[in-house]
Amino acid sequence: MMDPNWARGLRDYCRMHGIKFFMKQMTGKKPIPHDLLVRQFPVVRRRYVESDLADTGYLPDMEGGLKAAIGAAGGLRPLARLLGIAHQSILQWEKVPAERVIEIEKVTGIARERLRPDLYRLLPRQK
């Protein structure tokens, strides 16, 4: 039997990390508590094949650092393979998740300041 407090914790975690939350059902036929009746849907992105990137340069709603990382890896699927995740996961990102910045910097060579300028600022070079 699902504990509603467990679901609340999951809902709060999702909210804190900007992840969409969809409460489908409770165990059995129990009604969903009102505060858990949350139905957020992820943004549906255009499906494309890898060659579309070369033809159109299309990457949906992604910041420049993420686009640069995809390009440096040789495409969306190669970057996903390097990270050990599904390419569909990357399609859900608008920018590189904070917890992935260092890993993506290592596998692509794209500086963390470019991947997430809101988290890492470029310091002036010392002479």
Written account of the structure:
The protein is mainly alpha-helical. The chain has 2 domains: 4-36, no CATH class; 50-115, Orthogonal Bundle (434 Repressor (Amino-terminal Domain)), CATH 1.10.260. The protein has helices at 4-16, 50-56, 64-73, 76-83, 87-91, 101-108, 112-115. Helix 3 crosses helix 4 and helix 3 packs across helix 6. The longest helix is centred in the first third of the chain and has 13 residues, at 4-16. The radius of gyration is 19 Å and the shape is elongated.
SSE topology sketch:
Elements: H1 4-16, H2 50-56, H3 64-73, H4 76-83, H5 87-91, H6 101-108, H7 112-115
Helix pairs in contact: 3-4, 3-6
Q: Please give the share of residues in helix.
A: 40-55%
Shape: elongated
Largest sheet: none
Task: Work out the helix count.
Answer: 7
Overall pLDDT metric: 80
CATH topology of the largest domain: 434 Repressor (Amino-terminal Domain)
- CATH class value of the largest domain: Mainly Alpha
Tally of discrete structural domains: 2
End-to-end distance: 64 Å
